[in-house]
Design brief:
By secondary structure, this protein is of the alpha+beta class. Helix content is 35%, strand content 10%. The mean pLDDT is 90. Pfam families: CxxCxxCC.
């Protein structure tokens, strides 16, 4: 993970029960997977996709799709591609996120918890996260092909 500072206030999240995590998983950024080093990125993305707990989502339609990486939605684990618009993050447990703070996607680390359950996502929308992955589209698709070939022939 990149050294991006984040905000963690466990007592607020515990009271809320992770409602944001129950709605939709936070998006990862290329830096979460070792950008700009594409060799490191490839290995980390393939490992994540093979785990079944991470997936490739996209923003846009047709030829304007931009692919990005995010945690899988519970019940959809194991899908290399998933375009669901809502669902509970695979890493959410009854006691909070199963990932250490530094292992979480940047969008999750940067979320500012609020007592009124109106957390501030600081602009980490699907569109914003996808835009960060724009230069890595070929890499993402190569990872997907290799993971699916592994699963097919594995």
């Amino acid at each position: 993970m990149m050294d991006v500072k984040g905000i963690e206030i466990p007592e607020i999240c515990a009271k809320c029960g992770g409602k944001c995590c129950k709605h939709y998983p936070g998006g990862a950024t290329p830096e979460d997977f070792g950008a700009p080093d594409e060799g490191i990125m490839y290995n980390k993305i393939v490992e994540a996709l093979k785990s079944g707990r991470w997936t490739i989502d996209w923003e846009g339609t047709g030829d304007d799709k931009i692919y990005f990486i995010r945690p899988a939605i519970k019940g959809n684990e194991g899908s290399t591609f998933d375009h669901a618009y809502e669902g509970e993050c695979t890493f959410l447990t009854s006691t909070g996120c199963e990932l250490n703070f530094e292992q979480r996607p940047e969008a999750c680390r940067m979320l500012i918890p609020r007592m009124n359950e109106r957390c501030d996502n600081q602009g980490y929308t699907r569109k914003h996260v996808a835009s960060r992955w724009e230069r890595y589209q070929e890499l993402i698709l190569n990872c997907a092909v290799d993971v699916e070939e592994f699963e097919w022939f594995g």
